[in-house]
């Protein structure tokens, strides 16, 4: 899979079969669209391509209260590549100029002029251009592009969408989120140096850098983490650590079971398996340690039961 940033005209690429979207989380609706795109691309002898945006347009328009991001750009690209369905990804910078682009200009300059789109597959609710003035009928009027719309994908009777996944995660319903995603929700990031308070309490943690201000979920969780040294179970806290910090920044801290080593600077992928509780403030460190011990014991029991079920 090739990834292109900025104006792709300098590469002189041949025509493509394209779909457009934010693909935040690459949920089952996205996955079904990519399968349909792959089939149509093969039928026409074209490479399959995705046009996506950075930052997420809703982040751009709501900078003071941005929506929770399900996946970083890096994770999104990794999931698109892992699907095996996409040949090209075009990442366009979403800025003031792009937001003001008229719908017809988007068709002429981006879809036709820059991306050389021959076939276009869009969702049934797709709108584009300044003030979201462009729609399916306008796209169909372009003689250079064969445009088709795909109906929403239903999972157990509900429409699969990034918004629905966010709602499930915010409510702590990880099973429902997994139904829409097709896999457990996960985050990845680089392990950074922290205050190293956990090791003094007997629970050393890996502190994962979060590039976005607002995560999609908060609390204490049973997790599995992929590291350079293998996969480990553990317990994780995602929140603001009110007992030991006054900061309003969110932190992801992961205590790995039966692990010894140095993870600083490495990338780690954390899969959230079960929510144990909401974040809480404790009166003293002894109370905090007692709760961490309880959380760790609950997480170990859950992982042991899961291992027995999978055996």
From TrEMBL:
Known EC number: 2.7.1.26, 2.7.7.2
GO biological process, one term: FAD biosynthetic process
Listed SMART domains: Flavokinase
CDD domains, A to Z: FAD_synthetase_N
A single GO molecular function term of this UniProt record: ATP binding
InterPro entries, A to Z: Cyt_trans-like, FAD_synthase, Riboflavin_kinase, Riboflavin_kinase_bac, Riboflavin_kinase_bac/euk, Riboflavin_kinase_dom_sf, Rossmann-like_a/b/a_fold
Domain Riboflavin kinase, residue spans: 180-304
Pathway membership, UniProt: Cofactor biosynthesis; FMN biosynthesis; FMN from riboflavin (ATP route): step 1/1; Cofactor biosynthesis; FAD biosynthesis; FAD from FMN: step 1/1
Keywords on record: ATP-binding, FAD, Flavoprotein, FMN, Kinase, Multifunctional enzyme, Nucleotide-binding, Nucleotidyltransferase, Transferase
Catalytic activity of the protein: riboflavin + ATP = FMN + ADP + H(+); FMN + ATP + H(+) = FAD + diphosphate
Pfam families assigned: FAD_syn, Flavokinase
Coiled coil regions, renumbered to chain: none
PANTHER family: RIBOFLAVIN KINASE (PTHR22749:SF6), RIBOFLAVIN KINASE/FMN ADENYLYLTRANSFERASE (PTHR22749)
Cited NCBIfam families: cyt_tran_rel, PRK05627.1-2, PRK05627.1-6, ribF
Described purpose of this protein according to its UniProt entry: Catalyzes the phosphorylation of riboflavin to FMN followed by the adenylation of FMN to FAD.
Annotated family: Belongs to the ribF family.
Protein name (database record): Riboflavin biosynthesis protein
């Amino acid at each position: 899979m090739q990834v292109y940033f900025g104006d792709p005209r300098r590469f002189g690429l041949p025509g493509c079969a394209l779909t457009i979207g934010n693909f935040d989380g690459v949920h089952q609706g996205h996955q079904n669209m990519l399968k349909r795109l792959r089939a149509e691309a093969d039928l026409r002898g074209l490479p399959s391509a995705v046009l996506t945006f950075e930052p997420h347009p809703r982040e751009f328009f709501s900078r003071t209260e941005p929506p929770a991001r399900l996946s970083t750009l890096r994770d999104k690209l990794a999931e698109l590549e892992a699907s095996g369905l996409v040949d090209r990804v075009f990442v366009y910078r979403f800025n003031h100029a792009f937001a003001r682009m008229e719908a017809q200009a988007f068709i002429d300059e981006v879809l036709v002029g820059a991306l050389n789109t021959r076939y276009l597959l869009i969702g049934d609710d797709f709108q584009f251009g300044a003030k979201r003035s462009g729609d399916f009928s306008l796209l169909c009027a372009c003689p250079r592009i064969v445009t088709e719309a795909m109906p929403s994908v239903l999972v157990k009777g509900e429409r699969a969408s990034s918004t629905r996944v966010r709602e499930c995660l915010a409510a702590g319903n990880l099973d429902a989120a997994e139904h829409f995603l097709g896999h457990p929700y996960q985050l990845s990031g680089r392990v950074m140096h922290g205050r190293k308070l956990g090791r003094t309490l007997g629970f050393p943690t890996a502190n994962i850098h979060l590039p976005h201000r607002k995560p999609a979920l908060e609390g204490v969780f049973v997790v599995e983490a992929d590291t350079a040294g293998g996969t480990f179970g553990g317990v994780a806290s995602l929140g603001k650590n009110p007992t030991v910090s006054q900061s309003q920044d969110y932190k992801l801290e992961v205590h790995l079971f039966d692990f010894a080593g140095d993870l600083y600077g490495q990338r780690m992928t954390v899969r959230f398996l079960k929510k144990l509780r909401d974040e809480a403030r404790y009166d003293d460190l002894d109370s905090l340690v007692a709760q961490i011990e309880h959380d760790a014991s609950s997480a170990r029991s859950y992982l042991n039961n899961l291992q027995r079920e999978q055996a």
